[in-house]
Amino acid sequence: MDLVVHNDVQAFARPALPLLWSDPMRHTIEISVLDAMCRGQERAAALLTVHDAGEVVGAALRTPGRPVLVSALQPGHAAAVDDALAAADQDLPGVSGPTGVAEAFAAAHVARTGARVLVEQRTRLFTLDELVPPTGVPGDVRSANEGDLDLLAEWRFAFAEADRGAWTSALSPRELAARSLRLGTGELLWEVDGVPVAQASARAVTAGMSRIGPVYTPPEHRGRGYAAAVTAAASRWALHEGAEHVLLFTDLANPTTNRLYPRIGYRPLHDALELRFER
């Protein structure tokens, strides 16, 4: 087994993309992040491929300040990949991926460094089977534009605080919302009598896949079906754009969303973990 640490995004993308695109549902986050890197909208902090007998059998990547993404690794790769990233002077803040491989990587990192591991988030990945839009929800959907950036930024920040307790992106909420529009994301607002009451994003289709999120409803508008309605609208947007797979993640600590999405046609695929390393 050979490991290659890449310093160039395109040099990484050439061997990594066929592996990632072979299972776009499992590798949904890596595909989105790498697409943003290739389009100059995201910076790379670590890029690594795993080769065996001339075949690419694994890949890992991360952006500055964020965990290493490991959905395209096997648990047996964990120790060697952690060693290779350490040799490349990578100070890893954490790991994110499907539960089994994320846990294996964290165990290898702890064995090498003695770091503590803290659970940032436990999530579940869902895929759309057949869309079942809710009925009887007042209002309608419209696409957001640059004139909505202040609102999108405000709700991005509120979502992050509710989801993680703090804003963690290196970009400001407004910069992140603007970048989302540049990348062709479907930014949708649900409005009642012209007043926005909920929002959902659907990533531009890549490898036949689009991922929904974030979905946000301000507290004063909750409990009226707006989140389900705007998520269904975002799902419809993704299907219209040609997505074969429409995905979304839920926080396992949030029973409301884990009940909501199956009602509009989503079924679970796998559970995932984001873990943080502390020295």
Main features:
single chain; 279 residues; alpha+beta; Aminopeptidase; nine-stranded mixed β-sheet; three-stranded antiparallel β-sheet; 8 helices; Bact_Acetyltransf; GNAT family N-acetyltransferase; Acyl_CoA_acyltransferase
Measured by DSSP, the beta-strand proportion falls in 25-35%
Q: Please give the domain count.
A: 2
What's the number of helices? 8
CATH architecture term of the largest domain = 3-Layer(aba) Sandwich
* Helix-strand makeup class: alpha+beta
Largest sheet: 9 strands, mixed
Overall pLDDT confidence: 95
- Ranges where pLDDT stays below 50 over 5 or more residues in a row are none
Estimate the global geometry from the Cα principal axes: globular
Rg calculated over all Cα atoms:
19 Å
CATH class of the largest domain: Alpha Beta
Task: Classify the helix fraction into a percent range.
Answer: 25-40%
Order of helices and strands: EHHEEEHEHEEHHEEEHEHE
> What is the fold named in CATH at topology level of the largest domain?
Aminopeptidase
Q: Name the strands of the widest sheet in spatial order.
A: 4-5-12-6-11-10-9-8-7
The count of DSSP E runs of length 2 or more, i.e. the number of strands, is 12
Distance between the termini: 30 Å
**Assigned CATH superfamily of the largest domain:** Gcn5-related N-acetyltransferase (GNAT)
Describe the structure in brief:
Helices cover 35% and strands 31% of the residues. With 279 residues, the chain is an alpha+beta fold.
Topology:
Layout: E1 2-5, H1 9-21, H2 28-38, E2 46-52, E3 55-62, E4 68-69, H3 78-87, E5 94-98, H4 99-113, E6 116-128, E7 140-143, H5 149-164, H6 173-182, E8 186-192, E9 195-202, E10 209-216, H7 226-240, E11 245-251, H8 255-263, E12 266-278
Parallel strand pairs: 4-5, 10-11
Antiparallel strand pairs: 1-2, 2-3, 5-12, 6-11, 6-12, 7-8, 8-9, 9-10
Helix pairs in contact: 1-2, 3-4, 5-6
